[in-house]
Amino acid sequence: MSEQDPLVGDFKVGDKVKLVNDVTVYHVLAQQYPDGYVVTKGTVGEVKAIVSQKYKQSTANRPIQVAFTDPRPFVIHFEAEEITKA
Predict the structure, then answer these.
(1) Structure confidence at residue 3 as a pLDDT band (50, 70, 90)
(2) Which of 61, 54, 82, 67 has its CA nearest to residue 13?
(3) What are 16-70's pLDDT values in tens digits?
(4) Where are the beta strands (DSSP E) in 1-86?
(5) Considering only CA atoms, which of 12, 7, 11, 27 is closest in space to residue 68?
(6) Full-model pTM
(7) Hey, what's the torsion of the CAs at 36, 47, 77, 6, to 10 degrees?
(8) Residue 63 forms beta bridges with which residues?
(9) Could you give the count of Cα atoms lying within 13 Å of 3 in the half-sphere of its Cβ?
(10) Residues 46, 54: Cα–Cα separation, whole Å
């Protein structure tokens, strides 16, 4: 029996997920939204990668990389508790 990583949960690449809460990001349309762009609760994205220091070096401090398309394509890294399967 394998031990599940609590930061990753049972998420897999390709899963459709949605946000549990609003998230403010500063790397999306930074010039238009200098105080941050709010990605609202319930927004759906797709898991593009699981980045864990056990397997791969990364500067991300959250292991689940989720891609979104609106207002333009961008990615955010999450922990399992911040998203749910859509």
Answers:
(1) low
(2) 67
(3) 999 999 999 988 878 888 999 999 999 999 999 998 755 555 667 888 999 999 8
(4) 16-19, 23-25, 37-39, 44-50, 64-68, 74-78, 83-85
(5) 27
(6) 0.83
(7) 140
(8) none
(9) 3
(10) 22
- The length of the chain is 86
The dihedral sign for the CA sequence 37, 26, 23, 70: positive
Hey, which residues does 11 pair with through a beta bridge? Answer: none
- Decide: 80 and 62 in contact? Cβ < 8 Å: no
Say which residues have a Cβ less than 8 Å from residue 58's Cβ, sequence separation at least 6.
51
Q: Residue 80 in contact with residue 6, Cβ under 8 Å?
A: yes
3-state secondary structure 38-53: EECCCCEEEEEEECCC
